């Protein structure tokens, strides 16, 4: 059965360890020093090493055996008393550090789980990542860098120990194919579900379950087998990503047109160079009933500003996207036109398409 239990940030366990482990190390070191002093002390009194070691052990741990040899001198009695006091103290200190490690870890996990539950309950329009393998980890890192809220789910508790989720983002250990786990992730309030499990059948099941629980959210699904792509779309996935095809396409572009591909990669990465620095940006414009573009082809609409635009795609109301749309593509209500243009021109284009009094990205319009 799925485990819908949240856990604290791995950092809380590390904090508990940083407090308790030094005590355990110090106690163990002190105990070892007492043992060495005792063995050497008895040996100096003429005892054999095995008798000395045995006497130290039964003295520290209070086994109750009689004296190995008579402790009949003041020096031996002082040595034995030192071993009793110092040895007991070292053992108690070591055990206390171990107990603190266990108790602090449990307390931190309990408080961490409670805090994480509150964090998840406060999320709105977030992304749910099902699967925290290599692809899920990369996706989480990108969303963190972009400042997008998300919840990560994985059935393997060690996945979050190996690669902790950055930024204190919430995560859940559980089977994403189970409804209670998705409910705990706030699927009813989620904007996007990304299922990137390594098993295609599991991704299909998550897609079916997710679509039934939230009919309006966007679902992105991973598929390793091309034959699974249609199944995922039929089950409700808006977009299906095939990592093998993407990797092959990337490599082919680097072979065929390496300079252009390297430039594009440099522009789109979150680095020192990006589209914003060039004054360019991608945007999308939703066509409402009042838009002058309705029932017209792309070849008929005017897409000009101070510098011009490039229509790179049209997202249909059924969720499909037409990339490199032809000039004879006719536009309908609720279509989303994806454009690439200069930042200063985007609001101007918005006013031409919206044709109503209001604002587009904060720019007043009166059309």
Architecture of the largest domain in CATH? Orthogonal Bundle
Q: Write down the secondary-structure element order.
A: EHHHEHEHEHEHEHEHHEEEEHEE
Number of strands: 13
Return the CATH topology of the largest domain: Helix Hairpins
The number of distinct structural domains comes to 3
Structural class: alpha/beta
Specify the CATH class of the largest domain.
Answer: Mainly Alpha
Enumerate the spans where pLDDT stays under 50 for 5 or more consecutive residues.
1-16, 355-367
Shape: elongated
> What characterizes the major β-sheet?
7 strands, mixed
Percentage of residues in strands? 15-25%
Strand order of the largest sheet: 1-4-3-2-5-6-7
The protein's oligomeric status is: single chain
C-alpha termini separation:
58 Å
| Arithmetic mean of pLDDT | 80
Proportion of residues in helical segments: 40-55%
- Number of H- or I-type helical stretches: 11
Radius of gyration: 33 Å
Characterization of the model:
The strands form three sheets. The protein has a seven-stranded mixed beta sheet with strand order 1-4-3-2-5-6-7, with helices on both faces. The protein has a four-stranded antiparallel beta sheet with strand order 8-11-9-10, with helices on one face. It has a two-stranded antiparallel ribbon with strand order 12-13. The chain is elongated, with a radius of gyration of 33 Å. The protein is of the alpha/beta class and 367 residues long. The chain contains eleven helices and 13 strands. Strand 3, helix 5 (157-162) and strand 4 form a beta-alpha-beta unit. It folds into three domains: 5-120, Helix Hairpins (Orthogonal Bundle); 127-241, 3-Layer(aba) Sandwich (Rossmann fold), CATH 3.40.50.720; 276-366, Alpha-Beta Plaits, CATH 3.30.70.1450.
């Amino acid at each position: 059965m799925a485990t819908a239990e949240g856990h604290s940030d791995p950092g809380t366990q590390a904090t508990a360890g940083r407090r308790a482990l030094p005590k355990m190390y110090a106690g163990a070191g002190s105990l070892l020093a007492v043992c060495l002093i005792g063995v050497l002390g008895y040996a100096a009194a003429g005892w054999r090493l095995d008798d000395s070691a045995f006497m130290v052990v039964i003295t520290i741990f209070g086994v109750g055996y009689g004296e190995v040899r008579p402790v009949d001198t003041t020096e031996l009695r002082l040595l034995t008393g030192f071993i009793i006091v110092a040895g007991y103290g070292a053992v108690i200190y070591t055990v206390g550090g171990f107990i603190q490690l266990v108790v602090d870890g449990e307390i931190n996990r309990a408080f961490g789980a409670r805090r994480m539950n509150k964090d998840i309950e406060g999320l709105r329009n977030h992304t749910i990542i099902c699967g925290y393998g290599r692809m899920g980890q990369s996706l989480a890192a990108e969303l963190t860098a972009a400042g997008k809220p998300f919840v990560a789910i994985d059935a393997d508790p060690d996945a979050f120990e190996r690669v902790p989720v950055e930024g204190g983002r919430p995560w859940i250990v559980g089977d994403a194919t189970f409804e209670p786990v998705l409910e705990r992730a706030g699927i009813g309030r989620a904007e996007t579900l990304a299922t990137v499990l390594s098993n295609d059948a599991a991704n299909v099941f998550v897609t079916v379950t997710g679509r039934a629980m939230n009919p309006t959210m966007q679902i992105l699904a991973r598929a390793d087998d091309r034959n699974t792509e249609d199944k995922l779309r039929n089950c409700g996935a808006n977009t299906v990503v095939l990592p093998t095809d993407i990797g092959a396409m990337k490599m082919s572009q680097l072979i065929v047109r390496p300079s252009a591909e390297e430039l594009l990669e440099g522009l789109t990465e979150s680095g020192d160079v990006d589209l914003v620095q060039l004054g360019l940006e991608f945007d999308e414009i939703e066509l409402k009933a009042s838009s002058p573009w309705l029932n017209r082809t792309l070849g008929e609409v005017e897409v000009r500003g101070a510098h011009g635009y490039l229509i790179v795609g049209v997202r249909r109301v059924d969720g499909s996207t037409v990339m490199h749309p032809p000039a004879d593509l006719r536009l309908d209500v609720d279509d989303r036109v994806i454009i690439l243009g200069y930042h200063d021109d985007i609001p101007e284009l918005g006013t031409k398409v919206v044709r109503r009094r209001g604002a587009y990205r904060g720019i007043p319009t009166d059309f």
